[in-house]
Amino acid sequence: MDHVLAMDKAVEAAKTEAVAILNKWWDGKDAGACGFAWVNIKPKHKGNTKEGKAERVILRQMGFSPDWTGKEFTYWNPSELGVQNVDSKYAGALAAAQVLRDHGFDAYANSRLD
Fold first, then answer.
1. What is the spatial order of strands in the sheet that 35-41 belongs to?
2. Residue 74 phi/psi, 5° resolution?
3. Distance of alpha carbon 25 from its chain centroid, rounded?
4. For residue 51, what are the domain limits?
5. pLDDT in tens, 17-31
6. What's the structural domain count of the chain?
7. In Å, how far are 28, 29, 53, 92 from 109, measured between CA atoms?
8. What does the alpha-carbon distance between residue 35 and residue 32 come to, in Å, rounded to a whole number?
């Protein structure tokens, strides 16, 4: 279950970074641009192989789900903050992706304005 621990650390890092950005930039009046952020992981093995199937089980256990292409896995809003500020959410996604990369996953952050 090392992968679950990695995900716990990634979410913790995302929360810490997202809150830090909110505290640094929010002036109480302008909440900034609205949007979304998420982390994607590219599986290392093809899905029809033994290794690929096992890898996808692990990604699902971590809370990831297949993205719209079916080739990568997505975890939405890793900071778990109930805000719409895209800057804080993206900072959290970047922090989470870094922790996951440190644990051997091919992870990267994305964001989109609402």
1. 65-66, 73-76, 35-41, 107-113
2. -125, 140
3. 22
4. 2-24+32-113
5. 999 998 887 766 666
6. 1
7. 27, 27, 24, 9
8. 10
Query: Tokens standing for 91?
Result: 């900072």
pLDDT per position as a tens digit, 77-95: 999 999 889 999 999 999 9
Q: Cα–Cα distance between 2 and 23 in angstroms, integer? A: 32
Q: What is the DSSP string of 14-76?
A: HHHHHHHHHHHH--SS----BEEEEEEE--SS-TTSHHHHHHHHHHHHTT-EE-TTSSSEEEE
CA atoms 89, 90, 91, 97: torsion sign: positive
What is the pTM (predicted TM-score) of this model?
0.92
Cα–Cα distance measured from residue 97 to residue 7, given in angstroms and rounded to the nearest whole number: 10
CB atoms within 10 A of CB 79: 26
Using CA atoms, how far residue 16 sits from 12, 50, 58, 102, in Å, is 6, 36, 25, 17
